[in-house]
Amino acid sequence: MRDEAGPPVEVVTLGECLVALVAGVIGPLAEVGTFERHVAGSEANAAVGLARLGHRVALIGRVGADGFGTAILRRLRGEGVETSHLRVDPAASTGLLVRERRALGPAEVIYHRRGSAGSRLAPDEVEAAAELFGNARWLHLSGITPALSDTAAAAVDRSIELAREHGLTISLDVNLRRRLWTDAVAAPVLRALAARVDVVLAGADEAAVVTGTSGPDAADPGRLAAALLELGPSTAVLKLGGAGAAAQERGGRLLRRAALPVAGIVDPIGAGDAFSAGFIAARLEGRDLDGALEVAVACGAAAVATIGDLAGLPDRAELDRLLAAAGDDHIR
Ligand code: KDG
């Protein structure tokens, strides 16, 4: 399949794109009767975030030959994501997740994705997209994909080989999903992946699992960043939610950014992907690590203020407004 017309793809990503049925009202799933349909999936969210910021990005993967698959394709194309390598698989359904909205405590998420089209992603799809790697600058991965199936894990592996061959920067968002695998099974796989990429992005808890950090200061950003760097990447980025973010390059010092104040957190899911999109966009644009953290934190804040994974992802004008409003107040 040929790349759709347009400027060359800068960022390649791969993974499962799902439909999310998000509760229409706040409360426990057992009491909710109405749901809104959204497009979700960590890599798709990051892809849309990058596209909104003006970067050309391709998503490799599969959706089912069903209405949800069509909805995903239409939405991603409408957002300007390059989808010529997002295949329609006639033999499986589009993956689905259902999630509640909570005013307090974590929201329950149910997956219906075992054997889904997205989980059937295989290395030959990456091979078929090899031409993209020739011109691209960045490969973005998430730790969700290797948890989906052996073939999806092999697809990740092949994408890293191709990215290395063509000199792309590779990022890994750890994205530990405990509904897909246990910490004990995930940790060695994610650790091995972290060793093969340039940039690792993780929450504090994820970084602790991947690095095997424990003890009273296991959430200390300095300790976690150092432990991540020891695994092999040249940059470690910690997403700390309400505490902002931290990052460190090999041989550099730990940088911190405070979170942007958000008046009402409506839906925190997808904020991590927005953060990753902002970080990657800023690096592609030549910002230094601190500048990339500034953009990433602003994108993450924009995402938590709206329902669904995609709605809050800022476009360039919105990002500029957010950064101007934040000024330098959030620098620690
Ligand atoms: O980061 C948001 C994702 O978690 C969500 O869109 C669904 O990709 C998803 C997953 O596997 O949880």
Q: Any overview of this molecule?
A:
The structure is a single chain. By secondary structure, the chain is α/β, with parallel strands linked by helices. The protein is 38% helix and 21% strand. The protein is built from twelve helices and 13 strands. Helix 1 crosses helix 10 (271-284), helix 8 (204-211) packs across helix 9 and helix 10 runs antiparallel to helix 11. It is globular and about 50 Å long. Bound molecules: 2-keto-3-deoxygluconate. The site of 2-keto-3-deoxygluconate has 13 residues, from helix 1 and helix 10.
Describe the structure in brief.
By secondary structure, the protein is of the alpha/beta class. The protein is built from 12 helices and 13 strands. Bound molecules: 2-keto-3-deoxygluconate (KDG).
Descriptive labels:
binds 2-keto-3-deoxygluconate; globular; alpha/beta
Secondary structure layout:
Layout: E1 11-14, E2 18-26, E3 35-40, H1 42-52, E4 57-64, H2 67-78, E5 86-89, E6 96-101, E7 109-112, H3 123-128, H4 130-135, E8 138-142, H5 145-148, H6 150-165, E9 169-173, H7 183-194, E10 199-203, H8 204-211, H9 221-231, E11 235-239, E12 245-249, E13 255-257, H10 271-284, H11 289-304, H12 316-326
Parallel strand pairs: 1-4, 1-8, 2-6, 4-5, 8-9, 9-10, 10-11
Antiparallel strand pairs: 2-3, 6-7, 11-12, 12-13
The structure holds 2-keto-3-deoxygluconate.
The site of 2-keto-3-deoxygluconate has 13 residues, from helix 1 and helix 10.
* Number of beta-strand segments: 13
Task: Output the structural class.
Answer: alpha/beta
Largest sheet: 9 strands, mixed
Range of helix content: 25-40%
Instruction: Give the CA-based shape.
Output: globular
Ends: how far apart?
A: 48 Å
**What is bound: which ligands?**
2-keto-3-deoxygluconate
Strand order of the largest sheet: 5-4-1-8-9-10-11-12-13
Q: Whole-number radius of gyration? A: 18 Å
Roughly what fraction of the amino acids lie in strands?
Answer: 15-25%
H/E topology pattern: EEEHEHEEEHHEHHEHEHHEEEHHH
Mean of residue pLDDT?
A: 94
Low-confidence stretches: none
What is the count of helical runs?
12
